[in-house]
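Apologies for my clumsy wording, but are you able to produce some protein sequence, whichever is easiest, and the tokens describing how it folds?
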Amino acid sequence: MRSSGNTPRRPSRPFRLLVRLEGEDHPKACTGRRLLRWKRAVRIEHAGSGLPGPIVLDPYAPSPLSLADRAAAEAGGILIVDCSWNRLSARGGYPGEEGRRRHGLRRRLPMLVAANPQHYGRVAQLNTVEAFAAALYILGRTREAERVIEGFRGEGEFLTINRGRLDRYQRSRTPDEALLAERDLFRTT
């Protein structure tokens, strides 16, 4: 029997949010630890657990996140390695990066402006909760983005100051479209 088209669409399950803690940040300022404590994310030691590979948010990945990645996020979730920005830039990438390449689809977030106290106003220096909120928003999960960042300092400010950018990235169906949007928004070449 065919549906008349009026059947309500089943709501999709929330994306699995995965955090790998490196323990390099100050524990009280670590938003990844708070997400784990509040049960908004799940801690993992490595991505290779027999499950579909997650999208690994990696600031050094060549391709930005776009709607094309939504199915991968639905299947495997989104993984963030919570580590120090200072140490990350000094070593040129995440610790154990070779293993991570085998177990997930590496994507970087398109450029956004941080609203967290440590990196306020800096481009592309988001903390863990801001990165999750941005990824969820870009993948069309606006309400999940609002919920994940709820209760953090400046919770609404990150989404507010980046709303236009996030809306534009959310309309990007492919990484190439996200790159074009990013270039247009930040006037890069």
User: Anything to note?
Assistant: The beta strands are 17-21, 42-43, 55-57, 78-82, 105-107. The longest helix spans residues 155-170. Residues 114 and 121 are 5 Å apart (CA to CA).
